[in-house]
Sequence to fold (117 residues):
Amino acid sequence: AMRLLFLLAASSFLVSCAPHVAPTPEQAAARAAIDTVKPLPPIKALITVRNLSERDIMVGVRGPETQMISIPMKAKRTISLPPGTYKWAATAEKTETQVGNKAFEAGQQYVWDFNLD
Fold:
């Protein structure tokens, strides 16, 4: 009787150490799909850059993304940027370059005016 009990214990131990059952092809495909889902990019800020000057200007921003925007006199351009803090510089012919820092929040809309006259 003791020997039978030992055999039962040994056989249940072996069963518990057996490798897990392989997933079905559907389960494997579902797991692969979950593993490949990419996080959504952050929602960008929408910025209308207005040139109030009597001359064409160039505005550069550098931060989470870098962009150079050329804006004709008295015109505007709309850009989108990932949220974050940016260093910027604005210049026009025969003017001092203006520089600064500006922060933009995700999903917000901004109007950014420049007058380099």
